[in-house]
Amino acid sequence: HMAANFFENGTIIASPSRGTEKIHTYPDGSSINQNDYYYMWQRDAGLTMLTLLRVAKGGPVVTKQLENYASLYHEIWSKATPNKNCAPWGAGDGWCSVLGEPKFFVNGSVYDKPWGRNQNDGPAINAMVLM
């Protein structure tokens, strides 16, 4: 259910998958876990908000979610990113902007690990939501 992915702080998760469930076990006992997608991905969150705004057409619950979402992004985007080399092809330190981060932890902190880059359409989608 889509509403289960909306959090009170404005976070919208793409998937409840935390990477802990086995999806395949080999005869030797080793296994593969599902991928960990339990983050707020800018692209997915933006597309979800755009859909909510189009389908639900306002109302107090939608308005409150939009306010929480906007407040969360205001908070996130006011922080410095801990990441140092986000540009394609390893362009070097200093190429990161928190605006271009592809995903954030559910608590609103900036994701500081390498997996998930490069994705650069999230900020533009979120700009459309917030206009």
The total domain count is 1
User: Averaging pLDDT over every residue, what do you get?
Assistant: 84
Overall outline: globular
Which class best fits the helix and strand makeup?
alpha+beta
| Beta strands, count | 4
Query: How much beta, percentage-wise?
Result: 5-15%
Q: How would a textbook summarize the main sheet?
A: 2 strands, antiparallel
Report the C-alpha radius of gyration, rounded.
Answer: 17 Å
Please count the helical segments.
Answer: 3
Helix and strand pattern: EEEHHEH
- Percent range of helical residues: 25-40%
Q: How are strands sequenced across the largest beta sheet?
A: 1-2
| CA(first)-CA(last) distance | 27 Å
**Which spans of ≥5 residues are poorly predicted at pLDDT below 50?**
none
Question: Characteristics of this structure?
Answer:
alpha+beta, two-stranded antiparallel sheet, two-stranded antiparallel ribbon, 32% helix, 3 helices
List the helices and strands and how they pair.
Blueprint: E1 22-25, E2 31-33, E3 40-41, H1 42-56, H2 60-77, E4 103-104, H3 122-130
Antiparallel strand pairs: 1-2, 3-4
